[in-house]
Design goal:
- The protein has 456 residues and is of the alpha+beta class.
- It folds into 2 domains: 281 residues, Aminopeptidase (3-Layer(aba) Sandwich); 123 residues, Alpha-Beta Plaits.
- The chain contains 14 helices and 18 strands.
- Strands 1, 2, 3, 6, 7, 8, 15, 16 and 17 form a 9-stranded mixed beta sheet that branches. A 4-stranded antiparallel beta sheet has the order 11-13-9-14, with helices on one face.
- A hairpin with a 2-residue loop joins strand 4 and strand 5.
- Helix 1 crosses helix 4.
- It is globular and about 80 Å long.
- The mean pLDDT is 97.
- The structure holds ligand BES and zinc ion.
- The site of ligand BES has 17 residues, from helix 4 and strand 14.
Amino acid sequence: MKAVLDYLKANEARFVQDLCEYVRFPSVSAQADHRADLQACAEWMAARCRSLGLETRLCPTEGHPVLLARTPRRPGRRHFVVYGHYDVQPPEPFDLWKSPPFEPRLAGGALYARGASDNKGQHLAHLNAVEAYLKTDTDLPCDLTFLIEGEEEVGSRSLSGFLKSHRPELRCDAVVVSDTGMPASGLPALTYALRGITALEIKLTGPDRDLHSGIFGGSVDNPAMALSQLLARARDARGRITIPGFYDDVRPLSAFERRQLARLPYQERAYARFLGVRRLFGEKGYTVWEQRTARPTFEINGLTSGYQGEGSKTIVPSWASAKITIRLVPDQRPDRVLRQVQRWLRAVCPPTVRLEMKAGHGAEAYFMEPTRPEAQAGLRALEAAFARKPVLLREGGSIPIVTEFRSILGADTLLLGLALPDDNAHSPNEKFDLANYAAGMRVGAHLWRELAALPA
Ligand code: BES
Ligand code: ZN
C-alpha cells in the first residue's frame, strides 16, 4: 500500500495536468452542437485508459458513447464497476464566469472549470488510484471495470439498454460512484440515499401571434399570466406541494435518520448567506437537511414567455412555457407522479389557453442500508484517506442509473462523494478542490483492499 500512496503523492502535479486536459473538452450533453466534443472527450479518456494497460472499448450508443475499461482479469476474484460521467451541464450564463468555463484555471488550491467536480475530477481520481496499483506492480485484489458515460446530465437515456445488453460482463459485486458531495471540507461522507426525479415541459398557447397589448389586452387571456397562476397553485405557503396524491408513496423519515441528519453541520445564517438569499424557504416541519435530501420538491427550472430583448415591447405574448423537474424520494414512482402532475395540470388549466405537455427523463430515488458490509468497507476507506471519521449522508441530487444497477445488474452502489458544497456544480465558476482530488485517489487506493477483504 505504501508504494501506491507514494506513487500518488509523487505524481500529484501530473494528475492535475491530466485533469486540466480532460476539462478542456466542452462535453455539454444537453446541447446538440457539442456532439463532436463529447466524442473527442470520450476518446481522450479511452486513450488514457489504454495507456495504463486497461482493456478499453468505446461503445457507440444512440446518444453519446459509453466507455468500458477493464483491469486484467483473474478468475475467482470479486468484480466491481466504477461508474462516472464525462458529460457536463451547460456552462451558461458565460458572463458570470471569472475565467472561461473550458479553460482550466488553478487558484486557491482548486481547479476551476465546468466538469472539474461534476464529474471529471471525481472519477479520474479513481483511475489514477488504479494507475498507481498497476505502475507499482502492487497486487490489485479485485477485478475492476470503469463504466464512464456521456448522458448522465440528461437522464442517462442510453445506459439502461446498454446495461441490459452488456449484463454478463458488467455483473459485479457492487458499483462504486464518486459523484456526490461532502457536507464540509475535510469531512468525508458516505451517501446512502439520493432523490429521484421526473422532468416535464409545459407550454400554454393563447393568441396565434403576439398581440398589441393596448389594442387587444384585457379581452384575451395572457398566457404568461395564466402560466404564472397555474404554477403558483402547485405549492402552498407552508411549502407543501398541493397536487393531489403527490405525497401518497413518500416513505417517512425514521427516527434514526432524523437523528443522523440532525448531527450534520448547519448554521442558518451562514447557509442563507452562502446561497445569497435574504431568508430561507422550505416545507414546514422539516429541518433544512431534511428538506434538501429527504423531501420531494416541485421546481421550475426555466420560465419563458414574451419579449426578452432590450427595452420594452407592449404585447400579449402568444405563448408561455416552463421547464419543470420534480425531485422524488423513496418510494415515489416517477411515472405515477408524472401522471398525477399531468392530470392536475389538465384539471386546473383555464379553457382560455391550450396546454401542451412533454414528459422528459425520470429516475427513482435510491436508498441503500448503510449497515451493509460494502458500506462499512467504504467508510473504512474514507476514514483512511481523509484521516477523519466519515458521516452518513442522504443527498438531494439524482444519479439516474443507480437504481438500474440494482434492478439490472443486481448490484448496490457505494456513493463516495468528493464534491464540496461550494464547488458550484451546475453553476458558474465550478471548481474541484485539489486536496479532495488527492484524497479521492487515496480512497481508491484503500477501497479495493477493503472490498476484497469482505467475507464471502
Ligand atoms: N453529480 C450530480 C448528482 C448529485 C449531486 C448527487 C450532488 C448528490 C449530490 C449529477 O451529475 C447530477 O447533477 N444529476 C442530475 C440528474 C438529472 C439531470 C437527471 C441532477 O441531479 O440534477
Ligand atoms: Zn451534475
